[in-house]
Design brief:
Length: about 325
């Protein structure tokens, strides 16, 4: 009888119904100066929404903000008030205070420069963390974030939402494509003077490119005009991947996948939900969907594009920037 009772309790513990009864993961937000903050909070905190993502809830936020970045300065208080008044999120006065109230953290500051300092107390508190784009304000800061996280034994990941949209994922896995032998991805690419050019918004198209190609780029060249950028990467296996950053003309997202059997073209329906699902899954499992090494390579790809621009389009080797 005792063995039967133990077996029953084990089955109950492992069942989906039992898992659903577990309290949601308490999330804290650092930086309320991006539209991602109210968008993510609504998806997580409002069960009545058709795009609701269960399993976590935003309970606290630290406003942050960067006075020298217009899109931060003009929105930080507005979005902070919105999540406080509509969704009951508590606003706190420090990151240290935030970490005492939550199980995991979202660094949402639209300015990538403070991310390194913002993550230090999070790592000290041993809280898993998602870092929104731009991952950092420089490749040097990005490498330091990765080093600190590894030393602290704290998992993290960073990604554009474009990586997880179904249209791109389906394109990558489509058996009609055959072997993927190259790709072109494009996205809007406005710039911000405090960040390397592609860090600010071009990351969306670069992330799409890496979703299709995977890591392994060895060199980058860039052609630049006021209206557009074309950044071409040569992969170690000989494949070529290209990002086109759009500033003039229609501002849209898309990809072309060149396969051994056919060529596929897609302009995806963009959505945050799939990214939020991955964030919650990460906080539940502690397993990031993207390795730190791939994240660093993406940062190096974008910084190499800036170096190539300064060298009038000369090729730049990624291993020299990464230090290996």
């Amino acid at each position: 009888m005792k063995n039967i009772l133990i077996l029953f309790l084990i089955v109950m513990f492992l069942s989906p119904a039992f898992a659903q009864d577990k309290p949601p993961i308490r999330l804290g937000i650092i930086g309320t100066d991006t539209s991602h903050v109210p968008a993510f909070t609504q998806m997580l905190n409002d069960p009545s929404r058709p795009d609701h993502v269960p399993g976590a809830r935003v309970v606290a936020a630290f406003k942050g903000g960067s006075p020298d970045v217009e899109s931060s300065r003009t929105r930080v208080d507005k979005f902070a008030a919105e999540i406080k008044d509509k969704w009951g999120v508590e606003l706190v006065n420090s990151i240290e205070e935030l970490c005492q109230k939550v199980d995991a953290v979202l660094i949402e500051s639209v300015d990538g420069r403070p991310h390194l300092e913002q993550i230090r107390p999070v790592l000290k508190a041993k809280k898993p963390v998602f870092i929104d784009k731009p991952f950092a304000g420089s490749l040097r800061d990005a490498k330091e974030i990765v080093r600190l996280a590894k030393a602290a034994g704290v998992p993290f990941f960073s990604s554009s939402s474009l990586r997880f949209v179904p249209d791109i994922q389906q394109m990558k896995k489509n058996p009609a494509l055959g072997d993927l032998i190259g790709a072109i991805a494009y996205s809007p690419s406005p710039t911000e003077p405090h960040h390397p050019d592609l860090f600010w918004y071009g990351i969306h198209g670069v992330e799409t490119l890496y979703t299709l190609m995977g890591p392994g780029c060895e060199s980058v060249t860039r052609t630049h005009t006021n209206g557009a950028d074309v950044v071409t990467g040569r992969w170690k296996d000989g494949r070529i991947g290209t990002f086109r950053g759009i500033r003039d003309g229609k501002q849209t997202y898309g990809a072309i996948a060149f396969g051994s059997k056919t060529v596929l073209t897609k302009e995806p329906r963009t959505s945050y939900r799939e990214l939020v699902v991955e964030i919650v899954k990460f906080f539940q499992t502690g397993v990031p969907p993207i390795t730190p090494e791939e994240t660093l390579e993406i940062m190096a790809f974008m910084e190499a594009a800036d170096v190539s621009k300064k060298k009038n389009g000369a090729p730049v080797m990624l291993n020299k920037l990464l230090g290996y």
